[in-house]
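Reviewer comment 2.1 asked that we show a complete input and output for one of the modelled complexes. We chose the 5-amino-5-deoxy-1-O-phosphono-D-mannitol case, as it is the one discussed in the main text.
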Amino acid sequence: MCGIVGYVGGKPALDVVMEGLRRLEYRGYDSAGVAVVHVGADGYRLDGRKKAGKLANLEKELSERPLPAATVGLGHTRWATHGGPTDGNAHPHFDSAGRVAVVHNGIIENYAVLRAELTAAGVELRSETDTEVVAHLLAAQFEPSGRDLAEAMRRVCGRLRGAFTLVAVHADAPDVVVGARLNSPLVVGVGDGEAFLCSDVAGFIGHTREAIELGQAQVVEVRRDGVTVTDFAGVQQEARHFHVDWDVKAAEKSGYEHFMLKEIDEQPQAVADTLLGRVSASGKLVLDEMRMSEDELRSVDKIVVIAAGTAFHAGLIAKYAVEHWTRIPVEVELASEFRYRDPILTRDTLVIAISQSGETADTLMALRHAREQHARVLAICNTNGATIPRESDAVVYTHGGPEIAVASTKAFLTQLIACYLVGLYLAQVRGEKYEDEIKALLAQLASAPEKIAETLGRMEPVRELGRALKDEGRVLFLGRHVGFPVALEGALKLKELAYVHAEGFAAGELKHGPIALIEQDLPVVVVVPPPSRPLLHDKIVSNIQEIRARGAKTIVIAQDGDSAVEAYADTLIWVPELPTLLQPLVATVPLQVFACALADAKGLDVDQPRNLAKSVTVE
Ligand code: M6R
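Response of the prediction step:
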């Protein structure tokens, strides 16, 4: 939520900041703004531009009212929390004298008290945001801090409550950019004679792949020749360097109309990369980021999966596989609900936190609650060094590369792979499965990239269907067993991308209420389990007949050669054969393509749907 870029170096700061904002716009797009420190007639000055709406509005503003050349600057692309998406509420925010500029991600919970204090002291606040108070507080602390912006930031942070990333510049400290973070992301990019402060590495990947992770409650000062990290008390902290293992091309559309289309197509590779290196020469499953001992894993008596949105759906599928393979009971809980219901956790509970970004506030807070209760936490994450893996006892990284489109696609499939691997690993360690059974399942997983690629090769009729249904106001999705979370995921994709009222149901629940929704020509997508599970399969074939008899237009996703469904499908989408537990790896793909095509046909912004942001860093 909110993209932040700060830059100090030798390049034109505005170009660097705008390029970073373009790459981070997926984090929020309610407004955007920039500020630069430049040399004026009477010394250093600070100037900025900001505009409501997408970055394109700011670009237009900058072309009409250019900013002076500068080599220090910052920028922001906003997902609004306090104050509507107006020009005035857009970041950066400035102090009254226009010497300090601040951008912010997160929520300052005690801003009302601080605002009242500033107002009482005669400061005139010009926006409705929580952020503006920081600009005024920094300005007030600058002189008492010996004109040291980092020290001023530390003093101000000591007064703030909530979750925040802050980046600031000061016209009287013209060679530094200062940042701070508490429960909100910020990464340092280290280049040759230049440095960056960004919400994530995509903001500087065009310039450097060398980065520094920041811990919680730290302040960072970047200059052309170095980086200093301290805690809020000013005690110097060790800088943890890392190398970003993907390059700028991964964060570009590379000829695709939308990032989402590119990311859908990248799924076979992303799945293959996530599977890579997991099997030893002797055929044993190895998870080398698993920092928990085999004894600890053997003592696990309950697993609780916590996640949000698409990652939650991956968790629901994991339950079927992990329980089946390990016989350990698995609960799956929305991260945003978890800590409010006093969950029963012990030292023998394994909590699995699934998050693409590794920064989702709901999941992070749930994870912290679990650790406070002495549970062990294993993170499944796509972002190296993010807060969730950093605060976990063990990590399994998915290797999906950057996911830029707001709608999760390759993250979902790679999360499924990671969940399957964790399940099989637990089964191996606990002796719940024979070696050859695990090998057979791993071989089936190894065939997934090819099967996903095959599915992608068949998507033209699905795109056509999406275009044909562009005026539909409602679509239902049904599934059974692992097909149920797939149905939920299909509905979520359609809601978030096409603003269509879509619901996913367990097909067996139909007759307990939702069947009343069925009316003439209502499109209903049904995910059919493979015929190799006749008990499941035959039940859903009956469900299809029941809705068809009531006028529904049935769109059926079924395994190649499943002739039993043919007679009841108005549209049939074939997917390649995989065992039931792994079928979501192929069955989800048409639903992603369908939602994308339908949204595109409606002329909607596929990569940046309204009201959303990629990484939800506020609760
Ligand atoms: O980064 P995370 O995996 O923690 O994000 C969780 C959800 O916010 C995310 O999956 C969201 O539901 C997607 N936009 C759905 O496409």
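Residues 308-311, 355-357, 360, 363, 406-408, 492, 496, 615-616 surround 5-amino-5-deoxy-1-O-phosphono-D-mannitol (CB under 6 Å). We note this here for comparison with the apo prediction described in Section 3.2.
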